[in-house]
Design goal:
single chain, mainly beta, 9-stranded antiparallel β-sheet, globular
Length: 113
């Protein structure tokens, strides 16, 4: 889903955008679903809103920086390190990293990729 005419808009309420969901890939447990709203680009960087419902999924990451807007969870990296996902957390992911996301409450983030 893409937000029409976003370059003209000066304000987008990222917590109020409707996000259409589909079943998540890489499910380990639960029945998580994910959704994306593409907001466009800024200086060749993709911007968007991504959301996931509770459950556990595994993923191979792309280069990304994101800020958690809502929700709670944990990202565990292949080396055993973890990052707590809470509103306001800023996280940097590197292309090729293998992760496991444990989502406790619906999580929404704004990302730059």
């Amino acid at each position: 889903m893409t937000v029409p005419d976003l370059p003209i808009a000066r304000l987008v309420d990222a917590t109020a955008l409707a996000v259409e969901h589909e079943p998540a890939d890489g499910v380990v447990s639960g029945t998580p679903s994910v959704g994306v709203v593409e907001l466009g680009t800024f200086k060749e960087v993709e911007l968007g809103i991504w959301e996931i419902t509770p459950g556990v999924v595994r993923d191979v990451e792309a280069d990304e920086l994101f800020v958690v807007l809502e929700g709670e969870g944990t990202v565990r990296f292949e080396d055993g390190s973890e990052v707590e996902l809470v509103p306001g957390a800023i996280v940097r992911l590197h292309e090729g990293e293998r992760t496991e996301w444990t989502i406790r409450t619906r999580l929404r983030k704004v990302y730059l990729a």
